[in-house]
Amino acid sequence: MSPSASAGWRVALHDVATTLAPAFDRVVAYDLEGRPGSWFDSGVTLKRSLASAVVGRRTVDGVRMRWTVPRPDAERRFAQAIEIAGAAADALAAGTLPLDGADATELASRLSSAVRWTPERLAAEADRFAAAYRPIPILPPDQYGAIVVQASFGCSWNRCTYCSFYQDRAFEVREPDAFAAHLGAVDALLGRSAAARRSLFLADGNALVLSNRRLRPLIEAARDRFPERPLAGFVDVFSGERKSVDAWRELHAWGLQRVAVGVETGHDPLLAFLNKPGSADEAATFIATLKEAGLSVAAILMVGAGGARYADGHLRDSAALLRRLPLGREDVVYLSPFVRHPGSRYDQLARENDARDLTRAERDAQEAALRAAAREAVPNARIARYSIDEFIY
Q1: pLDDT digits (tens, 9 = 90+) for 63-92
Q2: Across 352-361, average pLDDT
Q3: Which domains are delineated in the chain?
Q4: Cβ pair 52, 122 in contact under 8 A
Q5: Dmax over Cα atoms in the chain, in whole Å?
Q6: How many angstroms separate the CA atoms of 12 and 27, rounded?
Q7: Tens digits of per-residue pLDDT, 374-387?
Q8: DSSP class of 357
Q9: How far apart are CA 340 and CA 328, in angstroms?
Q10: Is residue 257 classed as helix, strand or coil in its secondary structure?
């Protein structure tokens, strides 16, 4: 059924988006370029990536379900979103659209932008995305809304047994001229919707391992193109500890605000099984260095890594590590459910060493125990789940 002014319209103009609800159980949000970004429809939430992939999510009996929407269905959703914007524009022109305080002139301009899109143009955003970016495998959850700038590609280590994010690419650093061209392509892709993205994320996997001499021109170029945004990035313990506290202070002075650290576990034998260099002692020392430099930290622990074989040691030593971390209100501890990839080196080692995966109940119990340990150890820090299979950019 086509939306109409009698269907119970609700309209909201935000600084960074427009939401239209033709009925109580149907809501579409559009970015400032007029592109639909998310939908809520009869209990299903859908989100469009910058490359116009659409992912659906709903919860059934307490279980979160997630799926990629097939392209024909995605284009049908695009057509519906454009139709809703067109119906709102018609109702506004007829004076039958309840504005709820929204500025009619601004709303008319935004609706005009939305109805100029077509399903075909929205699908073609995949090509524009590919011209601006190489694939973005993962971000920390607090950076899903960041402007990602790819100063490097891949991971300088790239030998952790469990990780498949960067196995298809060698570690590579963009030269300043190429990085400037990349920033221009990102700016063109985002357009006015960049206003909704309040931070910068320096990608890929551990770009912060680069020397400050190499980082400075890249950071300055990114912040010149997208000013007044704090900067964040990934780094591992064994990469980040090579920098001194003064080097991290220098990065902080240049705009770095948050560092996401893949701690994974406080259990050293499990780190060895994961082929991740470093130790719990080094993790504690490194995070203290970041805090001394004035940075906020997102410390990532995996839930279920190592399976039943390492479960007791993982929980015991991770809880002990948490008690050593000087984290506060500006910091976060992420608990990331482990995902075992068939055919990975981890998969092979787990079979050889009888490291069976935790059952769902066991994994939930371990997550609850880690969450309780984190709340006790760092009561002022935020504790949150980090589900890598829900990432979309």
Answers
A1: 888 999 999 999 999 999 999 999 999 999
A2: 90
A3: 5-125 (no CATH), 133-390 (3.20.20.70)
A4: yes
A5: 71
A6: 11
A7: 999 999 999 999 99
A8: P
A9: 32
A10: strand
- pTM: predicted TM-score of the whole model, two decimal places: 0.93
Q: 213: number of CA atoms within 13 Å, CB side? A: 0
| Beta partners for residue 30, in sequence order | 18, 36
Question: What token pair was written down for 47?
Answer: 């989100």
Asked if residue 333 lies in contact with residue 301, where contact means CB atoms within 8 angstroms, the answer is yes
Angstrom distance (rounded) from CA 38 to CA 340: 29
Please tell me whether the peptide bond between 204 and the residue prior to it is cis, using omega within 30 degrees of 0: yes
Residues 219, 229 contacting (CB under 8 angstroms): no
Q: For residues 179 and 73, give the distance between their C-alpha atoms in angstroms, rounded to a whole number.
A: 36
**Looking up tokens 């950071």, which residue turns up?**
219
Local confidence band at 154 (pLDDT 50, 70, 90 cut-offs): confident
β partners of residue 383: 333
226 touches 195 (CB < 8 A): no
Which pair of structure tokens corresponds to residue 96?
């039958």
Residues 139 and 393 sit within 8 Å (Cβ to Cβ): yes
Sequence-ordered alpha helix ranges (H) in the chain: 71-94, 104-115, 119-123, 125-132, 176-190, 212-225, 237-240, 245-253, 268-273, 280-292, 307-322, 345-352, 360-377
